[in-house]
Design a protein that fits this description.
The structure holds 2 protein chains of 2 kinds. By secondary structure, chain A is mostly helical. Chain A is built from 17 helices and 2 strands. Chain B has a two-stranded antiparallel ribbon. The chains are: A mainly alpha, B mainly alpha.
């Protein structure tokens, strides 16, 4: 009889790091598909190029650090970082933008801190912020939704042969910001901008965000991530938005618009949930994510940048150890949790 | 303190106890004004002169100042030196003075200056104190220049731009356009770029130190191995 006679647990699911990372990569596919549908092939080209750059830079830095190269490349963490960063970049990005961002993310933000599991900041977001503050013009040139360029045009944008000016258009968040910072934000002005009025929220972007929501729900159903961070994130973003919108619906965007614009869903399900740089306890994750959401709302409504997922995630990454310190759960056998306040 | 090791003082200032890469002092000017080589050179020279001058003065008065009042006295001397430098720069290199701005008076708060005055100059005769000030200043200047060069090259694609601010009109064409049509890399010019750059320089120094130590160790362990091999007949460990 060929019965397996091993002791429990009789787990059959492969749960190595590489398998988890691959699941997350698969979960981004709906978002990638919708980005391609709305904005052309630029994102796909960028994702592929970013993966190549990530693997090469990871291999080089692992070699320099004297670590086994093949072993760490197989955990797919570099590929995931590359995919997330490339999804956040505008589809008009030239090749060098992705090259600088991804190699900085892998070499400096991840490996110089000690590699996977040791990095205090989300590498993809470090790369994104580096690019955003260094190349503000190239990083804000999105394509007007629904006016996707052809594959040839996307390739020419990628190689830098085609100037981006003729194709780029403002995103809904840009439009909303510009209206209010120029002081022209009144009801008729808002109504005249078609880009602000899609089916549910901003044109084009609503579908991108819904696709990432779908991918995120898949991750929760596969138990790759828990519900705490996405729920905390979206609540932290939507609640202040709701209050402000009820007070002044012209000055502030409605909560639906907030959670379906820019990088909200990508941030909530894919960026903030990075298990390395996020808080770890359950209540800690809720606090961490809610603060990210609030910060995004504050920066979007009053700050200098149209979107703020990257800045907010990095700032709260910085706070994550502190949050963990004060939200330590009770250990079995102890009456009270051993929290920082009591010592 | 009778036998002063001048070589050791020099090596300490330049390498072993470098104010910027080992003591990590004076970070504020180091990070703030090293956007270009000329800024770094201007501030580095000013700091060097202040450091040397204050070390000499402190060393001269070290017998007459009691311990209780020594720090205020040192700070007074340093502040006076800095004021002199500031006025000199205002007179002769006015544009550079405008660019460096608040960071010239802030040399007073550069911990390296007070640190050397208290740790070295107040316990040593004039000549070693002067050399210590000079070498510490030089070590600081070199790091400023490397960082300034790195940030200028990566940030703007040039080297030695605007050198006429320091060396007069004849230096106007010293600028090297290393990369043509460079788009600019704002991160290197902004303060975070300075932090990353300084981190890389310190890491580079540590790597070199480690290599040197390994070479020394290999050299030291070579000798006994040979003699042991002579005596043993079996296997050599």
């Amino acid at each position: 009889m060929a019965l397996i006679s091993s002791t429990s647990p009789h787990t059959t699911v492969s749960n190595n790091t590489g398998a988890f990372m691959r699941q997350v990569i698969y979960a981004t596919l709906p978002g990638l598909a919708v980005l391609t549908w709305q904005f052309g092939w630029g994102t796909v080209i960028n994702v592929l190029w970013a993966v190549v750059v990530a693997l090469v830079s990871e291999a080089l830095i692992l070699k320099a650090r004297g670590r086994p190269v093949a072993f760490y490349l197989k955990d797919y963490s570099a590929v995931l970082t590359a995919v997330l960063l490339a999804l956040a970049l505008p589809p008009t990005s030239p090749w060098w933008l992705t090259l600088i961002g991804v190699s900085f993310a892998i070499i400096v933000a991840k490996q110089l801190y000690g590699g996977l599991g040791m990095n205090p900041f989300n590498p993809a977001m470090v790369g994104y912020v580096l690019l955003l503050i260094s190349f503000p013009v190239a990083m804000t040139q999105w394509i007007a939704p629904g006016e996707a360029p052809s594959l040839v045009q996307s390739w020419q944008l990628f190689t830098g042969q085609l100037p981006v000016d003729g194709l780029s258009g403002a995103t809904p968040l840009d439009t909303f910001r510009t209206l209010h910072s120029s002081g022209a934000g009144n009801e008729s002005e808002l109504a005249s901008h078609g880009i602000l009025h899609g089916q549910f929220a901003g044109l084009g972007w609503e579908w991108v965000n819904l696709a990432f929501l779908l991918g995120g729900l898949y991750l929760i159903s596969r138990k790759i991530i828990t519900w705490h961070i996405p729920v905390g994130f979206l609540a932290g973003l939507a609640l202040p938005a709701l209050v402000a919108w009820l007070i002044d619906p012209v000055r502030f965007a409605d909560p639906m618009f907030q959670i379906l614009s820019g990088g909200a869903m990508l941030g909530a399900f894919f960026i903030a949930t990075d298990p390395v740089s996020a808080a770890t306890s359950r209540s800690g994750r809720l606090i961490y994510a809610a603060l990210i959401g609030v910060l995004i709302w504050v920066i979007r409504s009053f700050g200098g940048y149209p979107d703020a997922v990257a800045f907010s995630v990095l700032l709260l990454n910085l706070c994550a150890p502190f949050i963990d310190y004060y939200t330590q759960p009770r250990t079995y056998g102890h009456d009270k949790p051993n929290r920082g306040t009591q010592s | 303190m009778s036998d002063v090791n001048y070589k050791k003082i020099s090596m300490d200032g330049l390498w072993n106890n470098n104010p910027a890469t080992v003591q990590i002092l004076g970070l504020c000017p180091l990070l703030a004004v090293t956007g270009t080589v000329v800024n770094a050179l201007g501030l580095g020279l000013a700091t060097l002169v202040v450091l040397m001058g204050s070390n000499i003065c402190v060393s001269l008065i070290r017998q007459y100042v009691t311990d209780a009042v020594r720090l205020p006295a040192f700070v007074m001397i340093i502040a006076a030196m800095v004021t002199v430098i500031e006025m000199l720069m205002q007179a002769f290199t006015f544009e550079l003075y405008e660019i460096l701005g608040i960071f010239i008076p802030l040399i007073v708060t550069n911990c390296t200056v007070l640190g050397r005055a208290d740790a070295f100059a107040s316990k040593n005769p004039v000549l070693p104190a002067a050399l210590d000030g000079f070498m510490m200043g030089l070590g600081f200047l070199v790091i400023l220049l490397i960082l300034g060069g790195m940030r200028e090259l990566i940030g703007q694609g040039t080297l030695f731009t605007n050198m006429q601010l320091l060396f007069g009109p004849m230096a106007a064409d010293w600028q090297l356009q290393v990369v043509e049509n460079y788009g600019g890399f704002l991160f290197a010019i902004l303060p975070p770029g300075a932090f990353v750059g300084l981190g890389l320089i310190i890491a580079g120094k540590n790597v070199i130190d480690k290599r040197l130590k390994a070479i020394q160790k290999a050299r030291a362990s070579d000798e006994p191995k040979v003699s042991r091999r002579v005596r043993t007949t079996g296997k050599v460990s």
